[in-house]
What does this fold into?
Amino acid sequence: MKGAIQIFDRFHEIVNERVRSSLDERFCYASDASQIEGLPDFVIRPKSTEEVSRILMICNEFEIPVTARGAGTGLAGGATPVKGGVVLDMSSMNNIIEFDIENLQVIVEPGVVPEKLNRTLKSSGFFFPPDPGSSAICTIGGMISNNSSGIHCIKYGTTRNYVLDLQVVLADGRVINTGSKVLKSSVGYDLTRLFVGSEGTLGIITRAGLKIMPLPIAKRLVVASFDSAVIAGKVVIQIFSAGIIPSACEILDNTTIAVLKRCDPNLVFPNLGDIILFEVDGTDNSTAEQSYRIIEICAPLAQSIREVSSKTEMGAIWEARRLVGAAISRLDPTKTRVYAGEDVGVPIKQIPILIKKIQEISEEFDIPAMKYGHIGDGSLHVALFIDIMDPDQWERLKRAQEKIHRTAIELGGTVSSEHGVGLARAIYMRDQLGNDFLEIMQSIKRTFDPKGILNPGKLSL
Ligand SMILES: Cc1cc2nc3c(=O)[nH]c(=O)nc-3n(C[C@H](O)[C@H](O)[C@H](O)COP(=O)(O)OP(=O)(O)OC[C@H]3O[C@@H](n4cnc5c(N)ncnc54)[C@H](O)[C@@H]3O)c2cc1C
It folds into this structure.
């Protein structure tokens, strides 16, 4: 980079030794949890909004690309600095600033890890509901920027539903607040929602006011297995149509179960079929009633049904569910899971068709595809496996993922339910959203970031 030494010195004046430019440190930030790569010129670990603001003023002046990074667990290349420049590692801004339980909210810095927030909130009887599988390691800033969600989104919504206020540093260093402590407001454009899901392309989040919820008193879990994932999908629709909204509704296909059992032989899952986990929460009475009705609806179509009420077993099952992403690498030691086409979503009614089509695509390209995930909100994680040393399998994988994404769009769905667009899915933006939508996004981007320094190349911007 031209004038790199002088620019390094300018950053050094602001953050001292928390700016780095050695190759080994830069290399640590060259990718997130996807396979997309890009080497930054500088890594900076700011500790305050003021530092972020001063850094951005310099980047804006010299038109240096800036990519914010939380924990780098994103699966779409969102935090990968594909145009070089600065990676702003936000993980050191990790203070919980205020517990304001009376106002049903907390104020946090973006580097706070959600599981830590929830551990701290538990003693007050509250929680922050969005719970991605990565919640033990990802950051609130990354969750807001990707609008992440998890197993409880079906009842509790996504991160978007919990953000009341954001402090954001704009590309030119100005600092704005997008909301306040009030739970609702009808004044002005909803910039808070605009920043949620903006993947670091409009500003750097340095503080967030988040709504919290009371912890439910009771939970029950129904484990039902079915002849096929398609039948399982149909049962889910029947349950919603009967007016029952579980707090979680997850599918694990039979291959996923087999792999999980290989990791933990003590898991009490049926040996055959595809499984749905229905969790209900509320009071003792309401959970008993909902669980009874779910069993009633499943009964005519299920191979087996079991209600789990022991907290220990329930904990073990959810632990296993969280393990899936890592455990599936044990499917076949000669193959690797590649995150591609892994996050599609469709309107719930279309889920059985989506499952069927994915099975067909897997057969057509001869690529194993495990299916698991939040079936209750219409999203499905598809795990594709290949021998990554075999170019032919890479080629088939690319065609399979393309077809999975196109299928989701054709069914009125989305190429990403929760993992975000980053670079991995940028090419589908136009097809999913349309030309006019994309043009409006581009003009919003120009308003916030006229020189295009913030996370360039992402979201098709
Ligand atoms: C094993 C595993 C399981 C997962 N399970 C789920 C799941 O169940 N649900 C789900 O939704 N996701 C899941 N993910 C994906 C990922 O963990 C989430 O998207 C997570 O919220 C990303 O957080 P992060 O801190 O790692 O963000 P990063 O990957 O570091 O960044 C993500 C995006 O946010 C931007 N960003 C980060 N911080 C800021 C900031 N302060 N200001 C502006 N922009 C910022 C980055 O530029 C990037 O575009 C999973 C990932 C893994 C590896």
